[in-house]
Amino acid sequence: xxxxxxxxxxxxxxxxRTVVFDVYRFKKITGTRMGPILGKSDFSSxxxxxCEIAGLYPGDKPNKYLEAGNVxxxxxxxxxxxxxxxxLQGPMGLGEGVRIGVEEPVEKELCGxxxxxxxxxxxxxVDGYIQIDGKRDTILEIKTSHDRSKWLDEEGxxxxxxxxxxxxxxxxxxxxxxxRIVFLVGFLEDEDYDRPKSWVPTPENTAIIVMDKMDMxxxxxxxxxxYNEYIKGGYTPEWSDSATDQxxxxxxxAYKPGSPGKRRRxxxxxxxxxxxxxxxxxxxxxxxxxxxxxxWRGREGHRHRQExxxxxxxxxxxxxxxxxxxxxxxxxxxxxRKASGESPDACKPFIRxxxxxxxxx
Length: 361
Prior knowledge:
CATH architecture of the largest domain: Alpha-Beta Complex
Oligomer: single chain
Number of strands: 10
């Protein structure tokens, strides 16, 4: 039986509207996740993306739009490869005699579903590359759409690219150390989604848009800060009342972990920390909390270690700390920040004292 990522949920905090989790290994920020993290997507949200990266939520179920996109992507790439000079020489401003080619990407099954293993935070799968005179020159990003109007400028030409797509392709260009992007768009009718394998690309139902990548320094910095605060911190951003977030919550709440007595939990509340042992006993005293902590470390601590780097919560002294200690720190800092409105740096003195207390005995 496949592992259910919801088993890593520590608490669904209704008061704070956040999900606390205990995960050893995280997924990366891909190009498709970048837009939602920065609030640039109509189809996803920061909360949903956090649940996906932590492995709590498996992502959207297959539907005809996703399936059509997967089927038509290689069709469009082959169409471009067969007509590459005709389609790209003008838009890319290339002269006569320049050799242009389309480079196929490494198959996802052969690269561990990531083309950028040299980056620990960012990754993803490219749709291909454009080669100029035998050298990789440009990122190829392939899209399908059923709404041509979103791509039209004021003069009715297909020149407008949705911002989330620009972020996605620019991230892959940045990771590939390239400066230019070719968008190849296929426009589908409703009936095409029922028979995507029968769809035939033509000049009338496709478009080419060439642009320079956007400056990714600030978007990548913001996304990495988000990643350090939430994903490495072990909790999600607050969920909203949107249909997207409520669908994710419904899935998370449906998980049945089994007997409550067998589940160990840590709760962060405004009234303080509560630690539950293996039999569900509540340890209220400091000594009882430390004993429960030591039992937890002895039985399961080896599964919950991770390299320590939490934005604004730790320096060198925080690296290698026990996972439970880190979660207590994060929970405490969240409460302080919410109550006082202070920055993460203002929490550091209190966090150091709390860390020393937890580590005592």
